[in-house]
Amino acid sequence: MLFSLYIRNFALIRELSVEFGPGLTIITGETGAGKSILIGALNLVLGERANSEMVRSGTSKAVIEAVLKNAGTEKINALLKTATIDPTPELIIRRELSSGGQSRCFINDTPCTTALLKQVGELLIDLHGQHEHQLLLRPETHETILDEYGAALPEVTVYRASRSLFQDLEQQLVRLKKNTAEIRDKKEMLDFQLNELNALDLKTGEEDSTETEITLLENAETLFSLSTALSDLLYNSEHSAYSSISTALHTLEKLASIDKRFAIHLEETRTAKSIVDELSRFSRSYASDIDFNPVRLDSLRERQLLLQRIGKKYGRSHPELIVFRDELDARIALENNLEEEIARIEHKITTQKAELSLNAERLSCKRQEAAHRLESAIQEHLAGLGIPNATFIVNLIHEERNDGEISIEGKTFAALPNGYDRIEFLISTNPGEKPRPLVKVASGGEISRVMLAIKSALAASAKLPILIFDEIDTGISGRIAEAVGKSLKALSRRHQIIAITHLPQIAAMADLHLSVEKSVHDDRTVTEVSVLDHESRLKAIAQLISGKNISPSSLSLAAELVDRASH
User: Fold this and answer.
1) Is the pTM of this model over 0.70?
2) What does 476-537 look like in DSSP terms, one character per residue?
3) Which of 193, 245, 369, 472 is the most exposed place for a label (fewest CB within 10 A)?
4) Are 402 and 254 in the same domain?
5) Residue 167 sits in the same domain as residue 286
6) Does 284 share its domain with 158?
């Protein structure tokens, strides 16, 4: 529910705050008073395109903020979570527009894009103005409307799943056939490459280990000389490190027996002696194990050169060559199984195609049944709204194609994202006139009533909680005006309805009556909105009947209309 609307420095509005209620809210006011400004502000906060000329002259920024309660639907919460905005039961959407043309959007005080604001707005409010193309006029929405009305969403879900599986299988088949063709075209080259790489017997880490071994063999003489010299320094020479530390340790033990302060260094010296002893053993062992092998060195150098040439030939590093070899092996091995795999996938596609066709037919049948009921319901509402000879058609079009994925009664059709039906609403409001798409209905009065009839028929299934009608009364009067008012009143039992009207029959139906007035303050024109009490409301309705000069009879008629509306 739209709970409140705050507007500052927007067009003729300096600052105002309007609270709305459930049921039917009626907005009245003289022509030019600024009723359309309220709709413009709502449009802006719902993500419509902004214009810097909307900012009140002499100010730097316009602000429009709408507070909506119990607006946390599953779709809206999903959108907010994707945008990292915390969903809350009370939704606050705000739009700020600077005089320089910059626009900023917020949801729950978190900055967001205009696109997100528009997405959220379209899930909350359907604003039907005289010239706007709102949701129900868009052919792309008719499918969703029909499915919600006919409770066909489970069938849609099943169809989508079967279509997705069918498409996955077809993609698998395309990839398999492509792989088969590529392997066959390149079989000779692939075989040669695999044999060449297999002959090398490539091993992981071989490049580094070969380099390390070559370095050791190339420096064998130096390594032997240095390790032998190290062994002599540590242990073998007359004044070796081991001998010196042993003497020092003996002396330290004597000192510690006299002065305990030397005792703490005994363990460290024993550790040093052990380290020297271990290092000298390693040096002797290392020197004895050194391999003076020029034949092995030449062999390794040849291997290294060979690996470098192969790497350069294929433009790959040693690890990449191993991966490439394994890929070649897998591709060639795959050829032996491809024909069987292709046959298996083709069989699954045939089976899945039959299931897809069955699900598409079930969905279409449910839609056709719902279409007949929807046609009758809307025509009944149109008759009550003064269009008794209307013909409303829910047109289900099936696109037949020779290569279609769906097969029904010997014909093939395209598998569309949500079935094989293309759905569009058509209407004729006059006898003998051919039904045409909704967007081509010419009369403003007819458009208003057609939209009201559709919304009334869809009231139980419609997901939009808030409906706003700007000048729903265009082109109607008298008995039809009263019928429109009653229809709005009935619709408001399921939805919050906000309607701008000039007709007393409709205004009398209000649960909440707002009046828009224009006045001059400090030489500036200002638009203001006020909530009318019972007496003020009767005067406002009387003014719609007789104009500015309210007569006792017009007041009496206004009271009669209000009383009749309440029963």
Assistant:
1) no
2) --HHHHHHHHHHHHHHTTTSEEEEE-S-HHHHTT-SEEEEEEEEEETTEEEEEEEE--HHHH
3) 369
4) yes
5) yes
6) yes
